[in-house]
Structure of Cytochrome P450:
Amino acid sequence: MRTDTSIFLTGFGAFLFAVCCLYISLLRRFKNRPLLPPGPRGYPIIGDLFNAISYAGEASVPLWERYLDMGQKYNSDVIHIDVLGDHTIILNSARATTELLEKRSGLYSDRPGMYMMTDLVGWHWDFSNFTEELFIKISSLEQYRPIIHSFSNQPRVRRAQFIVNFLITNFYFPWYESHAGSIILRLVYGMTTQSELNTFVELASLATESAIATMNHGSFIVDYFPLLKYVPGASFKRKANVWAPAVAEVINAPWEKLKASVASGTALSCFATKNLEKFNLMTIFDTDLVETDEVDLDMEKVIKNCAGIAYFAGLDTTKALIMTSILAISHHPEVLAKAQKELDAVVGPSRLPNFSDRTNLPYVEAFIREVERMYPITPLAVAHRVMADDIYEGYFIPKDATVVGNAWAILHSEELYKDPLKFNPDRFIQDDKDSSVPPNPELYAFGFGRRICPGRYLALESTWILIACLLATCDITRPLEEDVRELDPVLDFVDGMTVHPKPYDCRIVPRSAAALNLMKTGYSAEIHKCASKHRVLLNERETYENVNSGKRKGCIKGESNPRRVEGPTGYGPHGNDPGYHYPIDATSNQSLKLY
Ligand code: HEM
């Protein structure tokens, strides 16, 4: 008995001693360290785990609003949340995102581990490893315009049918979806046949569900505690298994189609073929000629993944912007009237608007900006990861912390946008030379710093042409009930990583017989030839617009590609895994172009 007691006392003493040593060493380590930003205190070791568990998967309050509320509660635009030692830093102001994600983008451009998304659902080829794989220079948007026009135009009957469908059924018809998707599929894989386009647009929509649900870091507890991915039968694993096949199809199926079309000699020139040609890879699809030891199969994988990313990242987001724009206009007849007045004056009744009209249609532009601001499609952008300890405004930002730019909070801040909850495109109209307008929402609605969306100009052009044509030729209103009473507004959004309106009814009616005829006729052959006179690289344009104007201070003036990263490479959670790190030298001219 005495022996037992003494063993117990010795053990207990040793335990106390160990705890004291640990405590002292932690005290020493953190003694001179500045405080973390304010945030929920949570409990020792587990931190804010209980809140994270109760929040995961629950959508009663969108995450971006919750983060904004926290900022107000702790009276800070930078918030810190700790879950099981996994740090998340929320940036609720433009000041903070500009300072950290842009000015210090060399440190803040990695991606955090999104284990549910990458490891379990199979999106590892997507966002996590994009930047180092290549720099897509989307060269000359003007070169795309004939294609964008042709899809905004084709087939004419379908457009008319779209209107008729609305008229007859008052029912939502997903033409918007094939518009954005068709443009991207044509540009990336050279697809044109309607059945192919429909199949791949549908496939992307299927896969989207999982991306929306998993891309916000912490949507699933396994993001905080990666070892959970080995727990057999866990409910999130069952979910992942349901989602995984569509995700695998998104990356593989269009590539197989492309291979078949190259092999049969029917492939059209597109992003994929141009880059395969550039790296002498076209022969790999020819089964008779293939000499696998002489071709760079890693590079094939790079091109395949980049094509898959552009296809997937662009389709759902652009579709959401178009859907939201149509929904917003149906709720604002005064905006519709103003836009139509401008279109009538500039374009007139005898043709459709085209890209050369864009600068002369400031109100239509302002309308789309206000949609981007009021209803950001990616309210929390995509999370970044900081690669080394840092200090911001006296606060400590620990290495590996997930850093989230809350675009929604910025785009709804009273400081930048007066009366932010009011839908008011006029805020972007400059009355006279001296009046100032608020910042272009594009600066925040497409992410931050070196990771900013490379497809944003394409998305905006595809949206602009569709909306401009629609406003010029149709009245868009809320549905009328039988007694001609207007229904209540239904601005109801499904939220997640990207935000879409829930299916809604709206009424789209041609403004006149001439307008309907115009839509049936479409663009003249002339417009299809609107080839560019000069080439404008997307990133040069970004440099020009944002750096020279001083708005994107994170970019170095004159730097032709602000996404280019000096210093450590191998970004992403799989950065050191050769399977995910592709052999492109960031300093060479070896870049892929979306032609
Ligand atoms: C309304 C439409 C769109 C929105 C709102 C949008 C938004 C975003 C956001 C928020 C990011 C993450 C930025 C960050 O990490 O800070 C992103 C990344 C990306 N987007 Fe878009 N996007 C749109 C359209 C497109 C289109 C049309 C394409 C391609 C054709 C595209 C291709 C990409 C790619 C490849 C990335 C990954 C960049 C990287 O990880 O470095 N996006 N987008």
